[in-house]
Amino acid sequence: MAERTTKRVTPPIASAIERSSAPLPTRRARVRYWSIIGLLGVLSLAFAFGLLAWDNPLPFGTDGFWRIASLRATSIVVIGVVAVCQSLATVSFQTVTNNRIVTPSIMGFESLYVAVQTSSVYVFGVAGLTFVAGTGQFVLQIAIMVGFAMLLYGWLLSGRYANLQIMLLIGIIIGGGLGSVSTFMQRLLTPSEFDVLAARLFGNISHADAADLPVAIPLVIVAATLLVWRAKRLDVLALGRDVSMSLGIDHRRELMRVLLLVAVLMAVSTALIGPMTFLGFLVATLAYQFADTFDHRRVFLMAVLTCFTILSGAYFVLRNVFAAQGVVSIIIELVGGTVFLIVILRKGRL
């Protein structure tokens, strides 16, 4: 009688599955991630070179060519600063609020910027815009926005009844109130004053003053470096308050630190080029889809490259093809708002 032997045969499908807890668990995921990073990097370089070289009247490589290119390089630097600010601030803010719909704009940064600009024209006339121009005023606007944010955070996130949702709700109310006051003052302006003011209330790369960059760049480098350095803690915070506390994270202290860095980045971006409400949301939504990982370091890299590609590409096309660089923010807001509605309709909730 033949001896019966029993063998456990491993199903071929199960054995083929590569199990890992790594941020990019499979080879296919790693190839997909780095392929998209490479594509965005090539597009970013192409658009940046296009902004420097397109319609340059002098031959490539000559001293005159590089002199004209150096004058245009300010726009590239501004786009890079805004890309880092908007992408890192939005991704971090959505992580600590545990909501991928809200953006830091909900805290009233842009409404405060609009109120400052409108008040200066309302009180001093068109000449009032010169009072909010210059490096000193740039630093003052950043200080006001960061101070306002920290006052709100310190008031609503400390104490026994600290609640993040209430803080967001009060941020919406304050932003709406500032917007209503600004609208009231705008109705009392003359048509010429309102025309000049309206141009300042749309985000535009050309609004940036090169003299402000020595202040803006160090602030952005410090805030961005600290956020990237805390990426592992952000991975834990994304699991929620209770889970992060059970894993040893001081949730309230970590929340305050991240919100402070978010406030600095958003204040620099808004004071530099003006409000861009849906840019951060658009970039963060695309970055989550492209990266497809929980690792914030990889999401940050993807978000920055996506933001730079969108901004530089839109600025290059609208400036050189349609001669309408002033409407870059309008196009981005239109696309971002449409994506926002699509996400809301797909999720069915906020």
In a nutshell, what does this entry contain?
This protein has helices at 12-16, 27-53, 63-97, 109-124, 135-156, 164-187, 191-200, 213-229, 231-237, 241-246, 251-273, 279-291, 296-320, 328-347.
Largest β sheet strand count, sense and barrel closure:
none
Number of strands: 0
- N-to-C order of helices and strands: HHHHHHHHHHHHHH
Beta-strand residue fraction: under 5%
Q: Please give the share of residues in helix.
A: over 70%
Cα gyration radius (Å): 24 Å
Identify low-pLDDT runs: 1-6
If helices are DSSP runs of H or I spanning 4 or more residues, what is the number of helices?
14
Structural class: mainly alpha
* Straight-line distance between termini: 70 Å
What value does the average pLDDT take?
80
Shape: globular
Keywords:
disordered N terminus, 350 residues, single chain, globular
Describe this structure in words.
- With 350 residues, this protein is mostly helical.
- 71% of the residues lie in helices and 0% in strands.
- It is built from 14 helices and no strands.
- It has helices spanning 12-16, 27-53, 63-97, 109-124, 135-156, 164-187, 191-200, 213-229, 231-237, 241-246, 251-273, 279-291, 296-320, 328-347.
- Helix 3 crosses helix 12 and helix 3 crosses helix 13.
- Residues 1-6 have low confidence and may be disordered.
